[in-house]
Amino acid sequence: MTDSGQGAQAPPSARLEAAIAWLAVAGLVLLVSAVGILALHLRDKVMEEAEARATDTVRVLAEHAARLFDAADLLVVRAAEETRNRDWDEMERSTVTWDRLRREAVRFPFVDAVWLNDANGRLRLTTFRFPAPSTTVTDRDFFTIHTDGPDIPYVSELIVGRVTGEPTFLVSRRLANPFDGFRGIASITMKPAYFSDFYRQLDLPYAPTILLYRSGGKDVVVQHPAPSPGATTPFDATVAAAMREAPFGGTVHDGSTLFTYRALAEWPVGVAVRLDLRLADAAWRRTLWPYLLVAMAGATALVGLAAFGFRQARAVRRAQRALEDRVRDRTASLEAALDQRNALVAQKDLLMQEVNHRIKNSLQMVSSLLALQGQSAPEGEARRQIAEAGRRVRAVSDIHTLLYRGQDVRAVPFHDYLAALCRDLERSAMQGEEWRLELALEPAEVPTDRAVPLGLIANELVMNAVKHAYPDSGDKPVRVGLARVDAEVVRLTVADRGTGLPEGFDWRRSRSLGMRVVHALSAQLGAGLEVRDTAPGTEFAVTVRLSAWEEEQSAAVSAPP
Asked: Which residues, other chains included, contact 511 with Cβ-Cβ below 8 Å and sequence gap of 6+?
């Protein structure tokens, strides 16, 4: 009987077709989103590469220009030294001086000529022509700046030479007489064409504009490519503001332009690179086209797969029904087998716990019978031997107590066992004496088949210390230790601070029952037994390897069900 308030469920094939449709739409959306994200990432990458390339170019060009200006200044200093303590008239007539300076100038391809002007601005000597033509530079800024200024190099604005008739700019220095009075200037003219030729040879993307400018007035002395007639200044308001804020270098994004600049160290000159980002956008679009073609191919394939999926919907429905029937039958059989296995495992665990419980009860009964037998025996060696036998039985019984109380019957928390054993010895064997047991027990799981003999060894060693270590009254400490040497080895130690072993005593050949038990059980375990004279006292150490049990445990875990 159906509920009329609920609509009929869509058949599985209809749900599968709807899922295919939604997957196709989601795939197209994901594809478009991925292409969009990729496009943005590629654009950011292109812009970052353009900025990094411009920054690297500015740095290299600044270093190049700094070396050229340093070399030009050395030539100016060399020309200034030629004038020292010499008369201007004599220098003006000296072909030797003219030839020497000319040979110095031709060594530098970026130098046009060397110029020497006296205090009145009159040209006295130039490597451009001999004798020097009659001209004056009193109205030039590179002359007036030195009349009262210090002797530091000065870079002029771009000028047209009165002698050469060519555009140029100068690097000049002040000449002083012995009394530090103004005597004239020494200067060289540099070739802007040299810089333009050098910039033209650089293989730089996006057709950059390269500028060499004076830092003070921001006027350009070299621009490559050369500006078109009527072009505006390259330092617009945004760039000028940025250069005032950071005069030593920086990058300015101004709409479709990237402007990167850097000032030269120790020179009032800077280098700038201006990129047209529209060219970078064009490069980005060219890079994006292959991805767009791949995306379109992917979209076409996705639509084709969706159509194929619709055709396969009914076949999937039939296969799904058959598979569901098989899975249902298989699941039912597996659940039944699993329930049966769990029941057998639970029954086995219960039986093991019951066995250990009964063994513990039987051993406790034997221990009690031995205690009663010992009480009825006369005082002396017989009663003592019976009491020791009872303690040995209790030591084994305690192991089975831990086994039936724990969840894992294959291993025993041996540190708990040792603590319980020592407490029992304090109650039974150390009453009325000044005994003191010191426990230093690290947690350690010991396999059941090794815990029983190792527990008996611990019992014998402690009782051996009780019987022989302290013949006199007083404080009688006995230290019991359990430590993990590594992941596979544990070490049991029993130590006292008593009289030690008698002189000439060989514990390996001792005929006492306790030492024979310790030897036999150590051999059974394959354990190492050491006895050390600690002066005062004696220490017994038993080293047992657990690897055999751990290998069995690993094999049980990795074995297939």
From this structure: none
Determine the residue type at 530.
Answer: E
Residue 114 has pLDDT above 90, yes or no: yes
- Is 480 strand, coil or helix? strand
> Which helix (H) or strand (E) element contains residue 373?
helix 313-376
Give one DSSP letter per residue of 75-143, joined into a string. Answer: HHHHHHHHTTT--HHHHHH-HHHHHHHHHHHTT-TTEEEEEEEETT-BEEEETTBSSPPS-B-TTSHHH
pLDDT digits 0-9 by tens, 427-472: 766 665 677 888 888 898 888 778 888 888 888 888 888 888 787 7
CA distance 258 to 251: 7
E strand or H helix at 269? strand 269-276
Q: Are 48 and 258 in contact (CB under 8 A)?
A: no
Residue 12: asked if its preceding bond is cis (omega within 30°), the reply is: no
Contact 536, 500 (CB under 8 A): yes
Q: Could you tell me the two tokens for 41?
A: 């990432």
Instruction: At 321, list the tokens.
Output: 């029904």
Integer CA distances (angstroms), 531 to 162, 460, 479, 524, in order: 111, 14, 14, 18
Q: How many residues make up the chain in this entry?
A: 561
Q: Are 260 and 54 in contact (CB under 8 A)?
A: yes
User: What Rg, from alpha-carbon coordinates, does the chain have?
Assistant: 52
Instruction: Supply the mean pLDDT for the chain.
Output: 80
- Are 143 and 185 in contact, with CB atoms under 8 Å apart? yes
pTM: 0.51
Q: What is the three-class DSSP state of 84?
A: coil
435-561 has CATH 3.30.565.10 classification: yes
